[in-house]
């Protein structure tokens, strides 16, 4: 029997009216893997997360979580509350009238866990996220970074099977972003939870992902480790989108760089473009005339 991935989307399509946002999208995540869906604004990242969580139903295709079909775009449909998923929203969606403690405790109260158990779990997760000292604060009394930690704490406190995060760092002060990112990644790895994050920020994707999926025009156009995506982009769109490669038509460039041994073997007819990154270039003694 074929071994099943922990999370699997099979040929998912979704249209809003005539706008086909997702066109036979398939993806897999292994247990404990950190997947990042990378795409420009409006490419359908949130739609994918919402289909995984069950808030949106696909027109076609199947969603499989932990060996169970939770949506077959027909009769089989497991509602969000039964999918055992933690969700971190872009705007965090904290309950403004509740303290940080009550926000984090909310999913456990819904499950009617004993009071003592709830306290213990909230304290544990607050400690991990270093927000123990602000548990009695309301969201409006918290910094952006603290609000984000509360949102992450609320998402993981019930120890869900799957963690979904939609642009979770976009409201964080750019100066703090790198360190918050690193902390969240460490935490997620420590807990070992399978995570799918959506972002339009290639740097964020590169620094967090085990596996990046590039979403463009309704399709996953490349899947790979950050290194693979960076070093072997499948086309000029990915090359430019991830890390801003310099791209020149080969027929212009080849005559200029004949002296470079590695490129000598390439046949101009076989390549449309040559891409190179700034860090791989240097000024030659003789120089090349360029505009
Ligand atoms: N309920 C809806 N009705 C109609 N169109 C929608 C609906 N939800 C999303 N769309 C459209 O579907 C496309 C994908 O939206 P989605 O929010 O999934 O993209 P995204 O990649 O998450 O974008 P962003 O990064 O800006 O949040 C967009 O063109 C959007 O306008």
Automatic annotation (TrEMBL):
It comes from Thermofilum adornatum. Residues 7-242 form the ABC transporter domain. The lineage of its organism: Archaea, Thermoproteota, Thermoprotei, Thermofilales, Thermofilaceae. GO terms for cellular component: ATP-binding cassette (ABC) transporter complex, substrate-binding subunit-containing. Keywords: ATP-binding, Cell membrane, Membrane, Nucleotide-binding, Translocase, Transport. SMART domains: AAA (SM00382). The keyword Translocase applies. This is ABC transporter domain-containing protein. The keyword ATP-binding applies. InterPro entries: AAA+_ATPase, ABC_transporter-like_ATP-bd, ABC_transporter-like_CS, ABC_transpr_FbpC, ABC_transpr_MalK/UgpC-like, P-loop_NTPase. GO terms for molecular function: ABC-type ferric iron transporter activity; ATP binding; ATP hydrolysis activity. SUPFAM superfamilies: P-loop containing nucleoside triphosphate hydrolases (SSF52540). Pfam families: ABC_tran (PF00005). PANTHER family: MALTODEXTRIN IMPORT ATP-BINDING PROTEIN MSMX (PTHR43875), TREHALOSE IMPORT ATP-BINDING PROTEIN SUGC (PTHR43875:SF15).
């Amino acid at each position: 029997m074929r071994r099943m991935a922990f999370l699997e989307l099979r040929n998912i399509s979704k249209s809003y009216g005539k706008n086909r946002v997702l066109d036979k999208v398939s993806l897999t995540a292994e247990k404990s893997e950190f997947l990042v869906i990378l795409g420009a604004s409006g490419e359908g990242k949130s739609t994918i997360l919402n289909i995984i969580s069950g808030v949106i139903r696909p027109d076609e295709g199947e969603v499989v979580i932990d060996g169970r079909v939770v949506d077959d775009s027909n009769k089989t449909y497991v509602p969000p509350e039964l999918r055992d998923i933690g969700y971190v929203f872009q705007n965090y969606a904290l309950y403004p009238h509740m303290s940080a403690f009550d926000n984090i405790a909310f999913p456990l109260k819904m499950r009617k866990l004993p009071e003592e158990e709830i306290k213990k779990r909230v304290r544990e997760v607050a400690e991990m996220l270093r927000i123990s000292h602000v548990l009695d604060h309301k969201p409006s009394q918290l910094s952006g970074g603290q609000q984000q930690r509360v949102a992450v704490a609320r998402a993981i406190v019930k120890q869900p099977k799957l963690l979904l995060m939609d642009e979770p760092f976009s409201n964080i002060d750019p100066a703090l972003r790198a360190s918050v990112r690193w902390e969240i990644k460490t935490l997620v790895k420590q807990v070992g939870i399978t995570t799918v994050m959506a972002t339009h920020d290639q740097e964020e994707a590169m620094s967090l992902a085990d596996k990046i999926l590039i979403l463009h025009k309704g399709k996953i156009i490349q899947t790979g480790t950050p290194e693979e995506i960076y070093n072997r982009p499948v086309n000029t769109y990915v090359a430019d989108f991830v890390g801003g490669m310099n791209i020149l038509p080969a027929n212009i460039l080849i005559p200029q760089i004949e002296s470079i041994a590695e490129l000598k073997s390439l046949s101009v007819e076989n390549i449309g473009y040559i891409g190179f990154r700034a860090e791989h270039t240097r000024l030659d003694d003789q120089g090349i005339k360029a505009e």
